[in-house]
Structure formats: structure tokens, C-alpha cells
């Protein structure tokens, strides 16, 4: 399960809890910044001001959920003679406010890492490749290729099929490769996503959006995490640098309060080798992925040159998603 799926699942659990209560009662490399992602003129506090505004929005949403819950409690008062419903709604409000505060702290930390300015990458279509293949050695996407990952979770055997299609989509004038990502648990489809990537001429792989659907018993129950660069203020980010260096911190996506995944290149253990599905990999690149939206969601991803992502580890649960097979045209 990748970071976005972690966040989506946790959001779903939070919504389920609230509904139950009602019923029951960085810094990018300097070369890259100057060439492609130079921020607009900043006041010096733009990042912190955005985080503070998001806190207000989060608290307002929590209060709105609370009053909707109270209204539902009032409507069902005859079924709740002991007042369990409003008590649960109040507890959920307290928990939601705590989540808002945690998000603020996480976003402030991100501002410290990235700098005080706005996030406003300058996207010039002429700086991007027109090829339908992405050739970055740590994130190769050749049309017709499918990466298959598997891992045991508390919910069962999770299988992720990451298929590089021959389709393209254009965002902000940049032609992007479309990837169809399907996640199933014990054979049941739980998430169906389209992702769009493009490679600039320096070799950085940019993430331009996703259309994500969460499913239960074959029915779509959510579209959490969906965003498209250029729509409703969403901006692209970098999913893999051309020349990743330990200590680099960068946004992978950016739609305020909807898509805020981050990555940091971290050092592997000295002489580290990893064993994945019977294969041993050496000299892997390791990234730590995190998000201002869900401070507790953290994972490490391991990349092998010429192969791509071979292993993902959820730092909270210890769950592993391992590359088990690559199919090629």
C-alpha cells in the first residue's frame, strides 16, 4: 500500500468513525529550482500563512461535521434516550481539532524544510520531453510494461498492478504518460487509479495528477486524493529527481488540503542490501515519503537503477509491498 492509499484508508476510517457516532449517538536542488520551479516573489511568510489558513479551514470543517452530527442526533433522539449520540459527536470534534493541530505542525515543518515562499513551479512545455517513454533509471515507464507488487496486510493479501499504458494526457501544455494503477485485497478491487507523469529534459520525472477511485463490493465509495495540475489551484510536483542526492526534500504533488505528498532522499544503511521476493538488490536509492495531510503516514521506498521501485515499507505497520514481477511488451 503506497502513501496515498495509507492516507485514503485513514481518512475513510475517520469518516466511518464520525458516521458511526451519528448513528450510535524542499528543498529541491538549486539547479532544478532555478531552471524549472522558481517560486513567485514571496513575502517571507507565504508558506506559513497558507498553513495557518488551512488550519482555519480544517477547524471550520470539523465544526461543520459536528453540527451535522448534532442535527442527526436531534432527528433520531427517540432512538438515543441516554444521549450517547451527542456525546460521541463531541468526542469526534475534539479528535478532529487535534488532527487539525497535528496537520499545522507538520506543514510548518515542511515550510522549514522547503523555505518560506509559495510553492509555484514554473512549467514550460518546451522544457519537457515529447516521448511517450520515461527513461529516468529510478523511475522507468515504458508503455506496455506492468509492475506487480504484493504484500500481506492486516486486511489480507494486497496486490498492486502498476500498468504503463500507451495513452497520454496533456496538462499545462505538457504531454504526460498515463499509468493505470489497480489495487486489490484478497482478489477484490479496492482502488482504481489513473496517474499522469512526464519527464523534463534534465531527466526529472514530474507528477501531473491522478484520478483515484476507492471501491467496496464493486461500488465506488470515494475519490479521495484525486487532483489535476492546473485545476482548482493544483500544481505538479516531482516524483523522482534526475540526480537524487541525500538530503533533497521536494513536493511530489500539491493541491491544498487534498494532495500534499512529500519525499526526502535518505541514506541507506552502509553496505545495505535488500532482499525482495528472492532477489537481492544493492546500491538502492531510498526515499522517505510523508504528507502534511496525514502526519502519521510515513513510508520508505527503495529504488533500483534500471528497475524502479522494488520495495515499499509502511513505517507504522511494517507492511511490505514487494515487486514480484515485471511484464514487458
Describe it for me?
The chain is α+β, with helices and mostly antiparallel strands and 329 residues long. It has 2 domains: 3-114, no CATH class; 125-327, YmcC-like fold, CATH 2.40.360. It has helices at residues 3-24, 30-35, 46-75, 84-114, and strands at 146-153, 156-171, 174-185, 188-199, 205-216, 219-222, 227-228, 235-240, 249-251, 253-254, 261-266, 273-276, 279-282, 285-291, 299-304, 308-314, 320-327. It has a 15-stranded antiparallel β-sheet that branches. Strand 1 (146-153) and strand 2 form a beta hairpin. Helix 3 (46-75) runs antiparallel to helix 4. It is globular and about 65 Å long. 37% of the residues are buried. Mean pLDDT is 88; it is low at 9-43.
Write the layout of secondary structure elements.
Elements: H1 3-24, H2 30-35, H3 46-75, H4 84-114, E1 146-153, E2 156-171, E3 174-185, E4 188-199, E5 205-216, E6 219-222, E7 227-228, E8 235-240, E9 249-251, E10 253-254, E11 261-266, E12 273-276, E13 279-282, E14 285-291, E15 299-304, E16 308-314, E17 320-327
Antiparallel strand pairs: 1-2, 1-17, 2-3, 3-4, 4-5, 5-6, 5-7, 5-8, 8-10, 9-11, 11-14, 12-13, 14-15, 15-16, 16-17
Helix pairs in contact: 1-3, 1-4, 3-4
